[in-house]
Design goal:
Among the domains are: 111-247, Rossmann fold; 251-361. 60% of the residues lie in helices and 7% in strands. It is an alpha/beta fold.
Length: 366
């Protein structure tokens, strides 16, 4: 029977063996495949350097945001800064109370014109010997008193014992104590409140001028000195002295050269104008005084303005200046200034009339 089925069993065994072999091979193949797949997966887990840098940047930005938020919260929770205390009265920049006068229109200034400031005392703080001599020479015949200080410290020492100065011409750059420091010291002392400080400097840049103003200097004069500028500064920061103005009138009361120039050199025509002035304005001081007394300020202003124009035409320079001062007093409605101005005008008018008579009677001049 075995022999009968043996021909069938053998092929089956072969087939079974093949199946077994197939299964074994398949299993081995599957294991290898799994191993390769696992290896591939593991290789995917290996860090990519670009990926690492990207992740690092993200973390950095994240930390930055956290830090900024933390700082903002800390700033928000910080107690408010204490306010800076206001400066004490002594530390504040002093208020300047010196009155600046308006300078009336004038012709080219000459040395003699400074005689109207006779008796005015000026302290000059200047370390340059040549500049000292120039200023002293310019004002030598004016009747003004000029006191020289070689530097800022000497100027302060002088002021300690003598405060009777109308103004100080202060060189900005000096040894020991410069003009800026000296001026700041002066402005802190109430005893010097009446003294104007004017800078002397070749510096005209905006920053330099600002520095002068911050130090307490009212104005500045450029070097080399200009007569017109010096005159305007002294006029602006000095009080008017009626007696000195009258006592120092010069022959320039009637500038005949200027008058003849206006009349194109025609002496007869100039004489006619002078005669008309005497006829029309010899009592102008009385008219103006009466108008002021009657409080007719507009009419007084008109008369004074009319006279100022005529004075320019005939060369009456001093009476012209006084007329301008009178107009200012009228416009300011200051009765005391008006009285002073009209008194001075009256005196100068009388002197001018005498000068005109003298000119007309002198045949050599005519």
């Amino acid at each position: 029977m075995f022999d009968t089925y043996s021909e069938y069993i053998l092929p089956l065994l072969i087939v079974f063996a093949i199946i077994i072999v197939y299964l074994v091979v398949k299993k081995i193949t599957n294991k290898k495949s799994d191993k390769d797949t696992l290896g591939l997966m593991n290789s995917d887990l290996v860090a990519d350097p670009y990926e690492e840098e990207f992740i690092k940047n993200i973390e950095t930005e994240k930390q930055k945001v956290i830090d900024e938020e933390k700082k903002r919260v800390e700033e928000q929770n910080k107690p408010p800064k204490p306010k800076k205390p206001l400066p004490k009265a002594s530390e504040k920049k002093p208020k300047l109370n010196r009155i600046k006068r308006v300078v009336p229109a004038h012709d080219k200034i000459l040395k003699d014109d400074f005689k109207i400031f006779k008796g005015t005392r000026i302290l000059v703080a200047e370390d340059n010997l040549i500049n000292q001599k120039v200023i002293t020479s310019l004002l030598a015949d004016s009747g003004m008193e000029i006191v020289i200080a070689d530097d800022g410290q000497i100027a302060l020492d002088i002021l300690e014992n003598d405060q009777n100065f109308a103004l100080i011409l202060m060189d900005a750059h000096m040894p020991r104590v410069d003009g800026f420091k000296a001026t700041m010291t002066i402005r802190k002392n109430p005893r010097y409140e009446h003294i104007a400080v004017i800078a002397l400097s070749g510096d005209t840049a905006v920053d330099d001028v600002r520095k002068m103003n911050d130090a307490g200097m009212e104005n500045h004069l450029e070097k080399p000195l200009n007569l017109d500028a010096l005159y305007d500064i002294i006029y602006s920061y000095t009080e008017e002295n009626e007696i000195n103005l009258i006592d120092t009138l010069t022959n320039d009361i009637l500038d005949t050269n200027k008058g003849l120039e206006v009349c194109s050199g025609d002496t007869n025509f100039y004489k006619e104008i002078l005669t008309e002035f005497i006829s029309n304005y010899s009592k102008s001081d009385q008219w103006i005084y009466r108008l002021l007394k009657e409080h007719k300020l507009q009419e007084a202003h008109k008369v004074a303005l009319d006279i100022s124009g005529v004075c320019l035409n005939i060369g009456a320079n001093d009476l012209y200046k006084t007329s301008i001062q009178l107009i200012e007093a009228i416009d300011n409605k200051n009765s005391q200034d008006c009285i002073i101005a009209i008194k001075k005008y009256s005196k100068e008018l009388k002197i001018l009339l005498d000068e005109i008579h003298s000119y007309e009677s002198n045949s050599l001049i005519i």
